[in-house]
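Researcher: Batch entry, complex prediction.
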Amino acid sequence: MSPGASDATRAEVSLRNVHALDALGTRGGALGRLVGVSCDLEAGMHVVVGTPADGLAALWAVLVGAARPMRGILLVGGRAPWSSAPVRRGIASLGPAPCLLGRRVRDAAQVSPHPDALLEGLVRFGLGAQREREVDRLSTSEQRAVELVFAVSHPTPELVVLYEPSTLVGALDPVLVREALQERATRIPVVILASAPADAHGLAVTPRFLDGGRLVPPEIAEGWLRATAYGLEVVLWDPDGDRAAALLYELAKRAVPHGGASWHASEGEPRLRRVRIESQAIDEVAHAVTAIGAELNLDVRLIARRSAQASHEVTSPSGGSR
Amino acid sequence: MIRAVRVGVTLAVSRLGARWCLLVAACVTILSSALALLVRRSSPLGAVDAVLAAFYGAVLPLVTWAALERVMTGSSFSEALWPAARFGHSRRALGVGASLASLGATWAVVAPGLVVGVVLAAPSRSSANAEAARAMWTLGLGALAYGAALVLGSSVRRPTRGRFAVLVLDYLFGSGVSILALPWPRAHLSSLAGGPLVAALSQRASSIALATIAFVALGCALLKTSE
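Model: Structure tokens for the complex:
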């Protein structure tokens, strides 16, 4: 991503002074906004870290053409995705909320212009059994897993935009997904929007930060990445992909002081979740995690202190907790 | 284009759901039967007109509103179409399909109740058949006009308020017979149900007015929607 590049049409994706709102607030209002974002996205992997309040969902919405920028210009291949159906056909995306259409997963694939590729993708990523399942009976994480597979199975994408692709995606193998994305990134821009730098793990890319609706300049972002992090790593058995979220939800309700949290599937065993909680009050967090684990009957396998020296995974100072 | 319209129909049908349609149809039928029997006992001569007035004045707008709230999932026209539009389908074509399917479903849900009500309220079997056939035609026009007006209300920034505002304005202005009532379906449906003529227009002209309202409102909503 090269902010401020002069030729708006040369880049595959070009944002110029883009102002936008998301629709995640109450009664259709906005939760986050973009304020004058300018950057170019060439072929390659791009990770943008922020929270919905920082405008992460608004960035997703304008990139994929779900929302129109209030001001500024956003072009994908020289055309605006909001007003061009053919451009949207070339954008593979995973959004904040699942929106599979149809009675069964198989029917949901038929809405796409290339259903066979999507259904083959489900088999390739180990979700072949989901094809005949009814969409209403899938959990949120299962629906997101199906949508993620649909996104990475797009046969001819011009742009891939994934919102939190390592969060709530069921038992999907993260290594397979990462390999598919890296293969795509050799030809087209792949944009990953995440709430923690941990989501950039293994993607060989330096994340950019979105803070208060603006892209943080690289020199400041570098300082954030180097900042010392303290915290805990909790490993728990999470076959349905919803227990890490439940743990963090309970933690948030108890007002345990922490500066952000993220989780991702363990590489060897996708049903194991590694939850990273940034906090300097380690003992208090560990106590709370133990109590919540007992209350929710969570199968917590490990609670470990994270080494300050080894960690490069801090969330944005403005937030990043979920 | 045709494919996108078909996908729009699928979107509306999957969101409405067979269970919801059956439940509403059953409620409407029970309600209309009770109303027809009640009205016929008190005033046999105007019973059919009373049933039609109740349907066109209350049941039809409310069921159309409920169906569109369900299809739009509380969001705007563009946002509601996103699950299909993200695959590169034209929002306008999807909108046509989703709107027509919603209006068709509204008609299908209300029609059985209306037929039962008219048949029970009519003084004789021969007049019942003629009244029911006429009522079906008017119901179709009414569903089209109300649906299109509510779709236009859905294309504003606060869509839930937009749809509600359409209902309120229709009630306020459409209840009269002056020139102010001309753009509102309620006034023309009331005229077709045997009520006073709207701005001295004949019933035939009111039918044309309903079709015009539907055409203009749906056209404006689609023009407001980006491709």
